[in-house]
Amino acid sequence: MRLARRIALICTAGLVGAVLCAVVGFYAARAYYEPRLPSVDSLRRIQLGVPLRVYTRDGKLIGEFGAERREPLRYDQIPPQLIQAFLAAEDDRFFEHPGVDWQGILRAALVLAVTGEKKQGGSTITMQLARDVFLSPERSFTRKFKEILLALKIERELTKQQILELYLNRIFLGERAYGVGAAAQVYYGKDVDQLSLGEMATLAGLPKAPSRDNPIADPQRARLRRDYVLGRMRDLGFISKPAYQQALAEPITAHEHTPDVAVDARYVAEMARAELYARYGEAAYTGGYTVVTTIDSARQTAAVAALRGGILAYDERHGYRGPEAHLPAELLPLLERDPTDEQIQAQLEARPQAAALVPAIVLDFSPEHLRVLLAGGSVVELPEAAFEWAHLSAKKPLHRGDIVRLARVDRAWRLSQLPAVEGAFVALDPSDGAVQALVGGYDFFLGEYNRVTQARRQAGSGFKPFLYTAALAKGYTPASVFLDAPVVYVNANPDDDWRPGNYEGKFNGPMRLRDALAESRNLVSIRVLQAIGLDYVRDFVPPRFGLPKERLPDDLTLALGSAAFTPWEMARAYAVFANGGFLIDPYYIESIRDGHGQEIFRARPKRACPQCEPPALLPASDATGAALLPASSPAPPAPVPEAERAPRTLDPALDYLITSMMHSVVVSGTGAAVRALGRDDLAGKTGTTNDFMDAWFNGFGPGQVAVSWIGYDQPKPLGRGEAGARAALPVWMDYMKFALKGVPQQPPQPPPGVVTVSIDPQNGKLVPSGTPGALLEVVQADHIPPPDDGKSALDAQTPATSIY
Question: Which of 136, 344, 375, 634 has the most CB atoms in a 10 Å sphere around its CB?
Fold first, then answer.
């Protein structure tokens, strides 16, 4: 007995000593580590990694950028049942313990004593938050001890609701989703308040192994984990038995939901991303920034459809290049037995993603019909009309197993192909430069190269309006006559002689400038450049239209548009014509807000303001001797403050005259197809470069200036006849048809300094009003054409009226 009593006493003393040592050790370690722990106050200021989001002006999402998907929520926005699901799965005593569940800690210690293995265990939600925010995920007693101290500290300084809010917004739940708000969107495409009980339980089961057990990676494991969480909720009294049974019966329906991009404006979204990264670095992807662009969603959609339609139309005109790929020979028997087999479907899924062009496998072909297999196993029958453009036949057939592309046109399938040619389109508001639509190529996913802002291509005849404006400023008028006839520029080596010609190889003899521009006569343009001087033009154009002087060739090819510019630069230059003579700066970011919703940037564009100027204008000259800015006189109060006005770079009279000449382009010249739009307030200029390398149309109407371009990224001929009027103009027209729908016609009105005169169309000279065959022409009031053969023409001049 005594021995037993002694042993018991020794054991008790040893146990008390061990406890005392543990207590002393705990407080000693606490005294050492606690001062070195991070401040809990930083949790209150913590910045969740919210991605960058980019929107149209009317609030449609066009892009989201960031490695993490987050949708931060307030505690009162999180459904109570979702909170209960996480408590059941992770920490059912959360509202009872002080941040550390000592029972769990003792349980983990017991496992260590019995097995000799260090296993993680007993972590509360508060401890998980401490580890997630402040500590590394390593498994060690030191890290665990710090975790305990931090959890206790957090519980002393934050409420339980604050802790849960932080935890449920930060926890990683797989598929790049951090927090329950993002996970609900990623897995189910829903807000948290729309989740079913089974879906809530599925999310609550993810923290243990989010990458392995999520319902996309492994639906079966996700089901087992969900059912465990539902059982815990039932046992804890959070849900009833019928609710438990109903949730168990729910199927696993999760699949990845990408951000709901509402408008295809990926080139603009990428421009915004690059700009935000330049400003804020990596923080751009985590700071919760919101960018609102100037893009109009409806016009952007119209621009995308117009450009893609123009590219595909060109592609069809130049024939079918054959199947995109072929099914491996070993899979052909499988195609016969089971077209839905995953190996067959994998061949379709491996094809590059291309907007509106769906990959398909040929099952059967004859000259009268085509049968193909689509992803998912559906079979489509195409009549002959759907592929007649490809000129397929028994001698030029498709074969079983060929991989082709289909396009949906007017609700019916049509054979198509990935386009080899490319294009670009940009439209902006000429009054302030706000970009309303921008498409940098056929499809961003086929290549991120933005041809609107990056592709410098020769402007071709699209440069001629700048040249003719310089001629008007020099004193020539739309009635001035130049010779359209062959010319040879001789070099020392005869092989280097330059023999410029016109597009169709014909010559018209003497031509008035209006007609020469409308018909895009190259030889007249060269003679105009010679008449006013190459240096004069190179000095005149840059300050008025914003085109870099260093890119203007110092030779006569300048007259034919050998200078290279981007569609963005051409749109800015043509905006000067469209807005009455003001040089604006295009912009595409309207505003930027930070992660707290505070506006940190708003565009302050300079605006064109013709009505800000006095009614009586007198011409002034610049260093080139050309009329540039009107002399000012006292003006009435202006609608736009002076500091917000764009600079006037072109005299109103010159602007009106050149615009009227470009109106002739779309009425009777190379752009006459524009008449189909049924408007009298449009103007523009086609552009075609040597050997049909580039096709352009640059034009404008009320509130819109737009530029379309078609060409190959690696320059090569588009093909005979593929001029701007054929390849690029239809794109511009399709867009303008939509953009100007319902917009009242607004023909420009002649400004002071312009008069209407009667002229002889053959020589451009003044004739009396009523002279048979005479034409009305608008000219500068101080540059009226001379009378024809001394005839009295005093009655030929009248106040200017719009000739639109």
Answer: 344
Question: 151-157 contacts: CB < 8 A, separation 24 or more?
Answer: 151/99, 151/100, 151/124, 151/126, 151/127, 152/98, 152/99, 152/100, 153/34, 153/37, 153/40, 154/40, 154/43, 154/99, 154/126, 154/129, 154/130, 155/98, 155/99, 155/126, 156/40, 157/40, 157/41
Query: Strand 599-602 and strand 509-512: pairing?
Result: unpaired
**Residue 397 corresponds to which tokens in the numbers above?**
């057939």
d(CA 119, CA 144): 11
Do residues 401 and 363 make contact, with C-beta atoms less than 8 angstroms apart? no
Taking Cα atoms as reference points, which of 507, 541, 543 lies closest to residue 527?
507
Helix axes 567-578, 464-473, angle to 10 degrees: 40
Residue of higher predicted confidence among 112 and 176: 176
3-state DSSP of 315-372: HHHCCCCCCCEECCHHHHHHHHHCCCCHHHHHHHHCCCCCCCEEEEEEEEEECCEEEE
Measure the CA–CA gap between 400 and 333, rounded to whole angstroms. Answer: 11
Catalytic residue among 71, 90, 270, 777: 90
Q: Which residues are CB-neighbours of 50 under 8 A, at least 6 positions away? A: 66, 70, 72, 286, 287, 288, 595
SS3 263: coil
* Per-residue pLDDT tens over the stretch 336-367: 888 888 899 889 988 988 888 999 999 999 99
Are the C-beta atoms of residues 608 and 650 closer than 8 Å to each other? no
Residue 594 corresponds to which tokens in the numbers above?
A: 């930070």
* The two structure tokens encoding residue 72: 């931060």
d(CA 74, CA 181): 10
Q: What is the CA radius of gyration of the chain?
A: 37
0.90 cut: is pTM over it?
no
Residue 562 annotated in active site: no
Please provide the DSSP assignment of 591-645 as one string.
Answer: EEE-TTS-EEEE----B--GGGS-S--B--B-TTS-B-SPBP---PPPSS-GGGB
Of 407, 399, 550, 547, nearest to 470 (Cα)?
547
- Facing residues of 798 across strands? 756
Q: Which of 297, 416, 431, 461 is catalytic?
A: 461
Residue 620 has pLDDT above 60, yes or no: no
Q: How far apart are CA 214 and CA 222, in angstroms?
A: 6
DSSP-derived 3-state class of residue 779: strand
The answer to whether the beta carbons of residues 61 and 54 sit under 8 Å apart is: yes
Q: Taking the mean position of all CA atoms in its chain, how far away is CA 204?
A: 36
Q: How many CB atoms lie within 10 A of CB 364?
A: 13
* Residue 323 pLDDT greater than 90, yes or no: yes
Distances (CA, A) of 488 to 109, 496, 507, 665: 98, 11, 14, 27
List 403's β-bridge partners, or say none: 325, 361
Residue 650 carries which DSSP code?
Answer: S
Distance from C-alpha of 707 to C-alpha of 686, rounded to nearest angstrom = 10
> How many distinct helices (H) and strands (E) make up the chain?
24, 25
Distance, in Å, from the CA atom of 323 to the CA atom of 254, rounded to the nearest integer, reads: 36
What SS3 state is found at 714?
Answer: coil
Cβ pair 661, 669 in contact under 8 A: no
Q: Is 632 considered catalytic here?
A: no
pLDDT value for 339: 85
Asked if pLDDT for residue 140 goes beyond 60, the answer is: no
The count of C-alpha atoms lying within 13 angstroms of the C-alpha of 364, restricted to the half-sphere facing its C-beta, is 10
Q: How many CB atoms sit inside 10 A of residue 66's CB? A: 19
DSSP classification of residue 241:
H
Distance CA 449, CA 452 (A): 9
Q: What angle do CA 509, 514, 518 make, to 5 degrees?
A: 85
